[in-house]
Amino acid sequence: MRGSGATMLERFPFARGRPLLGYGGAVAITGLSLTIRLLADPLLPLGYPYVAFFPAVILTTFLFGVRPGILAAILCAIVAWYFFIPPVFSVKMNSGIAFALTFYAAVVTIDILLIDWMQRANRRLAEERERSRQLAERGELLFRELQHRVSNNLQVVGGLLSLQMRSVADPAARRALEDASRRLGLIGRIHRQLYDPQGEQLDLAAFLTQLAVDLIDAGGKPGISCRVEAEADIHMPAHAVVPIALIVAEAVANAIEHGFADRATGDVVIRTMRDDGGRLELLVIDDGGGLPPGFDLARANSLGLRLAQMLARQIDGSFALEDNGAGTTVRLRLS
Fold first, then answer.
1. Which residues of 315-331 are buried (b: 16+ CB within 10 A; e: fewer)?
2. Does the N-terminal or the C-terminal CB of the chain have fewer CB atoms within 10 Å?
3. How far apart are CA 10 and CA 90, in angstroms?
């Protein structure tokens, strides 16, 4: 409502570029104010010759601009002088009349100047707002273009690593290049939706839902389903969502590669919730083969698991792997 009111005020005066409309409005408002003053005359004590004419000048200036306002001031002065300043129905001059007219002129001059100053300020404000809007649109466009280029560059680097992998014979080196290419490709795919030029936080449920689709597509096993069970209204800044996305990606990739190594089908659930203390807990649960006997996360030499633990510490969280009896549970708890 406040914005629409400001926009309406910025449209005044109406008669800019249309002088005939402004001058006609000044004459009409002067005639209306004279009619009102004549009708009210029996109710008013002696004097008050300008009681209906000050508002007429103010209204004319506000609606039609300075020059129509000056015309209305002159017409109202003549009408008040002729009809309501003794001796009435004449335009005789004496010191008292001169003082009254001078007082009237000073008041209406101040009124006209103040209204004109206010309207000029409103127009300047409207121009600044329009310039700001254009700059914001340009900045958002440049921001999105930058994000697009960063995403493309990440995917290009991932593609180069994938090409390099073909010429590497060592299995460990090929695996390292494959993992790096996969991670870069994933970051590139999700990068566009992570950052918003307005700095707004991301809806975690919506983000994880799209991420799950990307992860299953990248996993190469369409028989594996991945669903998200997330509490509503959990929003997080992009700098925290990036590590979460990488941890979830690592968990789902491990489930597909190890948990479902000898299976083409399976279920993965990504679940988020808040505990009684308001801390966020994220689980990635699969019904795969589970953890190997004697598994110890602290002694694991997997680069992906070490990366997940490092990312969890980066966002002041903890990372754990648990055997749930029917598969594996990855637990990320944020403090």
1. bebebebbeeeebbbbb
2. N
3. 42
Enumerate residue ranges in the chain where pLDDT < 50. Answer: 1-2
Residue 272: left if φ>0, alpha if ψ -120 to 50, beta else—which one? beta
β strands within the chain, DSSP E: 202-203, 224-230, 235-236, 266-274, 280-286, 317-323, 328-334
In one-letter notation, the amino acid at residue 275 is: D
Q: What are phi and psi of 272, to 5 degrees?
A: -125, 145
How many Å apart are CA 249 and CA 326, to the nearest integer? 21
Q: Over the stretch 183-224, which tens digit does the pLDDT of each residue have?
A: 677 677 666 666 555 556 788 888 888 888 888 877 778 888
Among 144, 126, 128, 244, residue whose Cα is nearest residue 198: 144
**CA geometry: angle 194, 214, 320, nearest 5 deg:** 80
Helix, strand or coil for residue 108?
A: helix
C-alpha to C-alpha distance for 194 and 243, rounded to whole angstroms: 11
Q: Is 202 helix (H, G, I), strand (E, B) or coil?
A: strand
Torsion sign across C-alpha atoms 161, 163, 167, 171: positive
What are the residues whose beta carbons fall under 8 Å from the beta carbon of 303, sequence distance 6 or more? 176, 179
* CA 268/CA 227 separation, integer angstroms: 7
For the beta carbon of residue 287, count every other beta carbon within 10 angstroms: 19
Length reported for the chain: 335
- Type of residue at 69: G
- Burial status of residue 278 (CB atoms within 10 A of its CB: 0-12, 13-18, 19 or more): exposed
Nearest to 238 by CA among 194, 296, 297, 184: 194
In angstroms, the Cα distances linking 113 to 24, 67, 85 are 21, 11, 26
Count, in order, helices (H) and strands (E) of the chain.
Answer: 9, 7
Q: Assign 3-class secondary structure to 226-294.
A: EEEEECCCCEECHHHHHHHHHHHHHHHHHHHHHHCCCCCCEEEEEEEEECCCCCEEEEEEECCCCCCCC
